[in-house]
Amino acid sequence: MKTLRILATGAALAAATALAAQDAPKSGGTLNVVIQPEPPGLMMGLLQNGPTQMVAGDIYESLLRYDKDLNPMPSLAKEWTKSEDGLTYTFTLHDDVVWHDGEPFTAEDVVFSVDEFLRETHARLRASLVHVESIEAPDDTTVVFTLKQPFGPCLGLFEAGTMPMIPKHIYEGTDYAENPANNTPIGTGPFKFEEWERGSYIHLVKNEDYYLEGKPYLDEIYYQVIPDAASRSVAFETGKVDLLPGGSVENFDIPRLIAMDNVCHTTEGWEFFAPHSWMWLNMHEGPMTDKNLRKAVMHAMNREFARDALWNGNGRIATGPVNSVTRFYEPDTPDITYDPDKARDYLEASDYDGETLALLPLPYGETWQRWAEVAKQNLAEIGIEAEIVATDVAGWNQRVGEWDFDLAFTYIYQYGDPALGVARNYISTNIAKGSPWNNVSGYVNEEVDALFAKAAVSPDEDERQALYSEVQNILVDDLPVAWMIELEFPTIYRCDVKDPVTTAIGVNDGMRDAWLDRD
Amino acid sequence: MLRFIAARLVKAVFILLAILVLNFMLIHAAPGDPAAVMAGEAGAADEKFLQDLRERFGLDQPFGVQLWTYLKGAVQFDLGFSYRQQMPVAELIWDRLPATLLLTATAFVISIVFGVIAGVLAAQMQGTWWDTLISSVALLFYATPLFWVALMASLLFSVVLGWLPGFGYETIGADYTGLARVLDIGRHLILPATTLGLFFTAIYVRMTRASMLEVSRLDFVKTARAKGLRNSLIQRRHVLRNALLPVITLAGLQAGQIVGGAVLTETVFAWPGIGRLMFEAISQRDYNVILGVFFISAAMVLLFNLITDILYGIVDPRIRLAR
Q: Fewest CB within 10 A of the end CB: N or C in chain A?
C-alpha cells in the first residue's frame, strides 16, 4: 500500500513536472491586438477612456493590481499596511524601478502623481481624493496616505486606470495638456511606446529594464486600428490579429469566431469594472415619475430572452443596483423578474394614459439597437407604446445628460466597490445636467443618501455590508432605473496566446504576463 | 481665357468662404459637443472636467467669436487643433493624404479606363449579347451598395480564397522597404481600389454607351459616313470625342472627391485615409477636423470644376468660341 502511494506520488510529481515544463512561459514573439476606436492619446493621466487604458495599461502602472476576487496584489508597491483606525495607508515601493527614460521611480513621483497631477486632471479619482488629508514621502520607497476619515474602498483606488503613476521629472511645473511628452508617453510599465501610425497601428516594444525578472515575455505588441466591426472579425479569421478584446466584434459574430480551431475565449477580466446595464427611467418629469409605471416597465422586460438572443447567453440577470461580482452585493432583494401579468397589474394601477414613451438605445453597435427593439416589443406586449429615438454617441451624451428621454439604455462600470461606482448613480447630491454618468434619473431619497454616505466611511466591513444590503433593498423597491444584465464581454484569442487575462482588470491591465506558445 | 479663369477664381474664393461659414453653422447645430463626447468616453465627468475641456478648446466662447476665430485661422491656412487627436488638423490631414490619394486616384484610373472602354464596346455592339452582358453587369454594380460589395469582396478574396489582404495599408510589422514595400502596398490596394472603382466604372459604362449611341445618330456622323470615312476613324475622331463631354463632367466631379476620400471603402478596409478621418471626426464632434476636411474637399471640387470647364473648351471648340 505504501509503495503504491509512493508510486502514485511519483507519477503525480512527474505529471506535474511535465505540465509545469509545458506551461513554462516562453519569451519572444509579437502579439497583434485589435484596438477600437483609435485612442485619442496615450497619456493615461489625461485620458481615461477605454481604448487609451487598453494600450497605455502596458506603459503605465500603479501601486497595486487586483486578482479576480478583487484582492489587492503587489505592483509598484511590494507591501502595504493599513492602520487599525483605518486612517493611514503605508506603501513600500520596489527600489529598482526606473522610468522608460532611465530616471529612477521614487515615492516623490507617487506624491506628485496623485496630489498634483491627477487631482487636477482625473475627474473620477478627484471625487475619492476628498477623503485624503495628506500624501507624504518620508523616504524614496515609502508613501503614506493619511485620510480625513476612514474610506472603505480606499485600497481599491490603486489600479492603473484610476491612479496611473506620472513621471514628476517630466511634468512638474508644465502645462500638463500641452506637454510634448504626451505624444511619447513615459511610464514604468512592461512595454515602451515605440511608434504610432495614426489610423493604422500603435507599436509597443518590450521594456528591457523592467523590474520583474524575465517579464514581460513578449517582444512587441501591435495594437491595430480597424474601424469596421465586420472587418475586425475578418482580421481575426485570417490570422492578422491574435486577440480581440471584449466588445471588439458584434455579438452575432462571436459564435462563429469561437467555433474556429485553435481559438479560445474567456469572460474573465471584467470583475473590477463589472459592467452593469440598465434603462434610466426619467424621474425628473413625465410618466416615469409614477412608481407603478416603473414597476410595470421592470416586470415587462424579458431579460433572459435578450441575454440569450442578443448576448449569446453571456451575462447574468441583474437583481439590483450592485453587480454580483462587486463587493457588498446583496442577493436577497425584492423580485424584479420578467412577469407580464404582474406588469399589466402595475400598469393598471398606474396613471399611464397611453402616451408614447421616448426610448433611447445606446449607440454602441447593432446589439444595443436590437435590444431597444426587444424592449419596445416587451413594452408593447403589456400595452405601453414606445418610440426608439435614433442618435449617435454625441447626441446620446447630450440627450441623456440633458434628461431628454423617458427610457434610456446605458451601462456603467462599478470599479469594485459601491462607494466608487454605484452610489454616484443614486445619490441626490449627484443630480446635475451635462453628464450622462451621474444620477441621471433624478432619484431623490434622503435615506438612500444617508446610507451610501455612512457605508463609504465605515471602517467595519460587516457594517458596510449591512448598510449596503439595506440600500439595495430600498432601491430595488423604488426602481429609479430598470436593471437589465450584468454584462460579460468575451475576450477572444488564439489558444497559443497564454495568460492574456490574469487580473480583474483584464486586457486593460496590460500584457505583462502574456506569452506566446509558438516556436 | 485668362480673364475667365481669374474671374472664376475670385468667385471660387467667395464660394469657399460661404461653404466654411455654412459648414461651421451646420456642425455646431448638431447635438453634443466634443467636450461631452470626451467626458462620455472617460466614463465619468464632473463640472470641472467639462468646464476645463470647453475652456481649453474655446467652446465656452460665444458662437460668433468661435466662428470669427476659425475664419481668421482658415484664411491663413491654419485649420485649428483636433480636440480628440490632440494635434493640428493640417498635420492630421497631411498624414492621411497620401493614403487617400493613392486609393482614390487608383480607383479613378480604374473606373475611367475600364468604364470608357466597356462603354464604347457596348455601344459598338449594340443589341448583341455582349452589349446585354456589359450593360447588365454595369447596372448590377451601379445598384449594389458599395458597403456590401466591399464586405463581400473582403470575405471572398481574403477569408475564403486567402489571395489578398482584407484590410490595412501595408503588412504591419513586416518593415518592408523599396520594391517589396511597393508590392505590399499594391496588394493591400487591390481590394479597396477595385471596390471603390466599380461604382464609378458602372456609371462611366452607362454614360459612355448612351452618349456614343446618341452622337452616332447625329447628322455630322452621317455626313462623315457619306464621305466614305473608315468606321474606326469615325468612331474615334467624331463619335467618341463628342461623346466624352458628359464623361469629362463626371470625371471632374469624381476628381473633386479624390482628396475628400471614400468614407465607406476606407472604413471597411481600414484604409488610413481622409474619408475615415472625417467619419470618425463626425461621430466624435471633432469640429475642426470635420471643417478642415470639408474645406480641403470643397477647394478641390471648385478647382476640378474649373479644370473641367477648361477641358470642355479643348474637347469642344464650340464652347471655347462661345466664350
A: N
Pairwise CA distance, residues A255 & A260, whole Å: 9
* DSSP state at residue B263: H
DSSP string covering B278-315: HHHHHHTT-HHHHHHHHHHHHHHHHHHHHHHHHHHHHH
- How far CA A170 is from CA of A186, A323, A410, A478, B149, in Å, comes to 9, 39, 38, 50, 50
CA distance A201 to chain B (A): 8
| A437-476 confidence digits (pLDDT tens) | 889 999 999 999 999 999 999 988 999 999 999 999 999 9
**Cell numbers that stand for B278 in this block:** 472625417
Enumerate residues 6+ apart whose C-beta is below 8 A from A453: A427
CA dist B179 and A293 (Å) reads 69
User: In sequence order, which residues have a C-beta less than 8 Å from that of residue B64 and are 6 or more positions away?
Assistant: none
> Residue A227: its pLDDT value, please?
86
Please determine, for residue B113, whether its predicted confidence score (pLDDT) is greater than 70.
yes
In contact, A169 and A473? CB cutoff 8 Å: no
Asked if the model's pLDDT at residue B323 lies above 60, the reply is no
pLDDT over 80 (residue A18):
no
B290 has pLDDT over 50: yes
Residues B207-215, mean pLDDT to the nearest whole number = 88
Query: So what's the ipTM on this one?
Result: 0.77
Smallest CA–CA distance, residue A231 to chain B, in Å, is 6
A134, three cell numbers:
495628506
C-alpha cell at B292: 478642415
Query: Over pLDDT 90: what percentage of chain B?
Result: 15
Question: B161 touching A, CB under 8 A?
Answer: no
Closest chain A residue to B275, measured at CA: A199
Cell of A111: 506624491
Top mean-pLDDT range of A158-162, B53-57, B61-65 = A158-162
B240-245: Cβ within 8 A, 24+ apart: B240/B120, B240/B212, B241/B315, B242/B215, B242/B218, B242/B316, B243/B208, B243/B211, B243/B212, B243/B214, B243/B215, B244/B116, B244/B208, B244/B211, B244/B315, B245/B211, B245/B312, B245/B315, B245/B316
CB nearest B84 (choices: A40, A177, A226): A40
Q: Which residues contact B286 (CB under 8 A, 6 or more apart)?
A: B34, B82, B83, B84, B85, B280
Could you tell me how many residues make up chain A? Answer: 519
What pLDDT does residue B259 have?
A: 65
Half-sphere exposure of A472 (CA within 13 A, CB side): 29
Please state which of the ranges A23-32, A246-255, A382-391, B44-53 shows the lowest mean pLDDT: B44-53
pLDDT band at residue A435 under the 50/70/90 scheme: confident
**For residue A389, what pLDDT is reported?**
94
Q: What are B21-42's pLDDT values in tens digits?
A: 998 888 888 777 777 777 766 6
Cβ atoms of A413 and A270 within 8 Å: the answer is no
Instruction: Name the residue among A230, A413, A424 with its Cβ closest to that of B151.
Output: A230
A-chain residues within 8 Å CB-CB of B47?
432, 434
Q: How far apart are CA B124 and CA A519, in angstroms?
A: 61
Q: Please give the residue of chain B at the shortest CA–CA distance from A125.
A: B44
Helices (H), B176-286: 178-216, 219-226, 231-233, 241-256, 263-268, 274-283
Question: Among positive and negative, which fits the CA dihedral A259, A247, A165, B88?
Answer: positive
Total number of residues shown for chain B: 323
Q: What one-character DSSP code corresponds to residue A387? A: E
Planar angle of CA A59, A63, A66, nearest 5 degrees: 90
Residue B210: all three cell numbers together = 448612351
What is the Cα–Cα distance from B127 to B130, expressed in whole angstroms?
A: 8
Q: Is A195 helix (H, G, I), strand (E, B) or coil?
A: strand
φ, ψ for residue B89, nearest 5 deg = -60, -40
